[in-house]
TrEMBL record:
Toroid-shaped homodecamer, composed of two pentamers of five dimers. InterPro entries: GTP-CH-I_C/QueF (IPR043133), GTP-CH-I_N (IPR043134), GTP_CycHdrlase_I (IPR001474), GTP_CycHdrlase_I_CS (IPR018234), GTP_CycHdrlase_I_dom (IPR020602). This is GTP cyclohydrolase 1. The lineage of its organism: Bacteria, Pseudomonadati, Pseudomonadota, Alphaproteobacteria, Hyphomicrobiales. Coiled coil: none annotated.
Length: 212
């Protein structure tokens, strides 16, 4: 298939928190040393000497979603689809994110579906959009809406459906300490929001059932 390059909306629209005024590497490492001291440990002991540097490197990787624009990932579409205009679902997209309230992990999977309107996008791009939003400080509710909205706005399909199921370490590791509990959130746009049968069809495909 030949790819069609479309001009997308400005990146700033989909950058929820633009990258500005980042501290220096030295400032980050100093902050980590302070946290290590606050835990009651000694940042100068052998096992922790290189920890500030490692933490800074890990944070750069885990929060690289702030440096990326999901709209740009969706800019390359395909129009030679042999007339296909039915539901496309990418399910079980594994992700890890971090809760914006406690900065502890959110671990889960996203299921994304859309009804094309003349063009489709590469399947890996859908997963990439999930990762970009996941690699920012998040709430699951906001992330669910962000994924659906950017796909709807950039691809302009007839509808988008997003279901996220995740375990929140802020519930498992602290506070109420309920391990194994799962939170589900969903968002529907376009045809999905107006048509309960389409919602059911999406959910059935996500759960591995056969749609007749």
């Amino acid at each position: 298939m030949d790819a069609v390059i479309k001009k997308t909306m400005p990146a700033s629209i989909y950058m929820e928190k633009p990258v500005t005024d980042r501290p220096s590497q030295q400032e980050v490492e100093s902050a980590v040393r302070t946290l290590l001291r606050w835990t009651g440990d000694n940042p100068d002991r052998e096992g922790l000497i290189d920890t500030p540097k490692r933490v800074a490197k890990a944070f750069r990787e885990m929060f690289n979603g702030y440096d990326m624009c999901p709209a740009e990932e969706l800019g390359r579409t395909f129009e030679e689809v042999a007339g296909y205009d039915d539901l496309v679902v990418v399910r079980d997209i594994q992700f890890h994110s971090h809760c914006e309230h406690h900065m502890v992990p959110i671990i889960g999977k996203a299921h994304v579906g859309y009804l094309p309107d003349g063009k489709v996008v590469g399947l890996s791009k859908i997963a990439r959009v999930v990762d970009i939003f996941a690699h920012r400080l998040q709430t699951q509710e906001a992330m669910t809406a962000q994924i659906a909205n950017v796909i709807q706005d950039v691809l302009n399909p007839r509808g988008v459906a997003v279901l996220i199921e995740a375990e929140h370490m802020c519930m498992a590791m602290r506070g109420i300490r309920k391990q194994g509990s799962t939170t589900l959130t969903s968002t529907f746009t376009g045809t999905f929001s107006d048509n309960a049968e389409e919602q059911i069809r999406f959910m059935t495909m996500v759960r591995g059932g056969l749609v007749r």
